[in-house]
Amino acid sequence: MRLLIAEDEPRLLKTLIHVFESNKFIVDGVSNGEDALAYAETEEYDGLILDIMMPGFDGIQVLRRLRKKNITTPALFLTARTEVEQRVEGLDAGADDYLPKPFATSELLARTRAMLRRKDNYCPDLLSLGKIILNRSTYILSYMENTLALSGKEFQIMEMMIQKPHMIIPTDQFISHIWGWDSKVDTSVVWVHISNLRKKILALHAPFEIRFVRNAGYVLEEIT
Questions:
Q1: How far apart are CA 58 and CA 128, in angstroms?
Q2: What is the pLDDT of residue 216?
Q3: Which CATH number fits domain 126-222: 3.30.1330.30, 3.90.1150.10, 3.40.50.11720, 1.10.10.10?
């Protein structure tokens, strides 16, 4: 397992690297937010250990930028700030766990192992295609500064299309995925929801369209 550790206090960073390397991890260490972001963007890591209070970008800013790029590497925050508000802020930014300083080495290792076990099940809150962003927590679709709320079915359809951009999705695939394989839903119901999505994409002034391909299905494409 390969970890990236970002900690601006030199002695603690050296200690953390020693602890993890002694426990058979491969470790890279950095001391500021800019380097943490640059290293993490390579997506070569199984997990991130991030200090919140760092020069340049803080740990929360680093993680938010990574999640906006759909980089789903699990992350654990280390911080001396123990207030509930900061814990919530860190978790809302996309962190998997939070460990306040000072901490026991055994607890740090246990939490890191638990974080890595959850890696394959991680599901980012934000999905993006170009500059269009779908928030899985709020069902908000946004483009630049414009935002609109989606209904539950609109959200599920948009989620499928953003995950498969430029790929034709058959109507029956929407039905089986959203309503269930044994559903009696008519294809016209899918058309109604897609029609509403088209209007919302237009209202956002987003350069995207949902195109119907005869005898095939629907595809989400960027307008060039």
A1: 23
A2: 93
A3: 1.10.10.10
